[in-house]
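Hey, I'm writing a tutorial for new members on how sequence and structure tokens pair up, and I'd like a real worked example in the thread rather than a made-up one. If someone can provide the structure for the chain below, I'll link this post from the tutorial.
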Amino acid sequence: MTKENQNSGLHSLKAGGPCTLPGKTRSKKNALAHGISAKQLLLNDESQEDFTLLCRELQEILGAVGALENELILQLAMLLWRGRRLLKAETAEIRGSVEFLGLDRHREQEARAFSCINDLLAQHTNPVAVEQAIELLGELRNHFEHIGFDLENDVAILRKIYGLNILEQEFPFRYIALNDPNQDSDTRKEMLRTYGDIKKKTIELIDEELARIGNLNNEIQENDCSRRGYAELVSLVPRQEILDRLLRYESHLSREIDRVLNRLDRCKRLRLGMASPPSITLTRA
């Protein structure tokens, strides 16, 4: 055996493909051009096995032969794969809108309630604001029961719940008229004669108001639940800007799929010696 043949045999034994990272990267790109091993086209959570199966099924169904037709099969498979991604994207958009709708709505209600300086009950469709009003009224009851009437503290709480003009609303008016000695009016005198035990009557008055607002809160919770249900149904359709983007991408994929199928058909006709259909060119008048 000559030295040249020995070197050739030794080289063939050592040749096992690229070993370095750059070499493997180049080899992967070659695979994209000559076969259906397309790992570089897939995302990390996508199955190479499923993509390869799709390519092989398309190859069998469309009867692709040769490098050019197999390249078109690869392009077609990638377009169909992107169509699957499009469906996932639409599903993710809808799921995100529906699943986070309740949380976003609650945060918005909280922001409105916490930014309110006076008149929480004016937000009559906001359950968070009404719950805060109930909590404040409970604090008023506890303070009155253990400490007694405190004009400055109690008026601040009542204004937070009912607004600045508290004497124009029934409960705040009766509460202050019963307990403020400066309210030396005929109404207070009549109340004193009627109820006798002012502290007991005031606590009963607060409890009645708590029950009234509690019933109001139950109605608001039911209505809010219904509104959230309707909003969830509306969220099943993506927002307009997202929907436009999805539809544009879907139209693009549809056009590209038609284009690749037409090219594949022409290649097959050329290979089989069949006449290709004439090209159609559209021009604007």
